[in-house]
Input
Amino acid sequence: MINQNAYALGANRSCIRDLFEYGCQQAAIVGRENVYDYSLGNPSIPSPREVDEAIVQILRDTDSLAVHGYTSAVGDYDTRKAISQDLNARYGVQTRPEQFFIGCGAAPELVAVFRALAVPEGEILAIAPYFPEYKPFAQEAGLTFRVVPPDVPDFQIDLAQVEAMVTPHTQAILLNSPNNPSGVVYTRKTLQALAALLTEKGREYGHPIYLVSDEPYRELAYGVEVPFVPAIYPNTIVCYSYSKSLSLPGERIGYVYVPEAAEDSAVLYAAIAGAARAAGHVCAPSLWQKVIARCAHLRPDLEAYDRNRQALYQGLTAMGYEMARPDGAFYLFIKAPGGDAEAFSEKAKEKNLLVVPGTGFGCPGYFRICYCVSRDQIQRSLPVFAELIREYRKEND
Ligand code: PLP
Output
């Protein structure tokens, strides 16, 4: 007998993967340059040069057994110290290495956090639009997954909806800013208002409502502030990843941070470490931990993403497409002409333009494009976007 939930997750490919595979097939027929693939969020800027240099230095200067051996289950102390020092210098906070758990990227970190919070009848609220993997992560952990409707058209947070949905069983609210798929950065004002609401509700229910802050895109912001969430609301658990910030998605490295000021901080930290242990996810890749110990202070050079972002935002809004301000990450989340994003995506596909419908992100009627692509693709695809919106307008005339 086979677990049917696990089977369904393994057997049904995600819509994003389907589009990506379709793009590969089409590329073989019409040529790569004639497929405008905006489906996958794979970074398109190289890692900073210092990352590669660190690998070479580590391999040259460190005993091979030490480089490739097991580390402490929660991560090398030096790595945790480097991360802690970087955050302290950057945000004026006072974190300690003992509050960090080194994980294999945001995905398994979220799974560990959800498992640590999974009490009987426990529930977690995601704010739409949200990263689709949250749902299986939460449900497999044993939490009830509920979705707060989107705050259209700006995609901040509809606090009245949050207030209406929080119950005594709410263990946590999931936060992702800069956001995948909207590209929106939650403002300090939004976060402060959310913190006030959760503080009040936590008091009323007699237990903390944690914020789980999923932060793979923290460093990808274009001229706006990305507030450090634990400094606004201490009951925050940060899940960070170097997948996007240092363009290392294949290397599987990141961390969980549990602030000392969080309620039940020590128990919570131990439960996260325990949940990771139960999932077999301890002792993140040793070489990469050593790289992060040397590179935790590095930030990406965002120039190429920013150029793409501006070219698409300006080009598409001039054509009449509508979207929230894409201040972060590398996504635009666009209102589908005609209102049906699935139909729009199918129509676009016929022209080899691959965009992801928003239904899986909890936001039907919108589609996502990921702009970690070449400048050339953007220039060649803009006329296709123009053609599509013209066709929709003609249909409605
Ligand atoms: N959370 C969000 C919002 C993401 O977009 C992604 C990956 O695209 C992840 C988590 C998973 O990231 P990681 O590669 O660190 O597991």
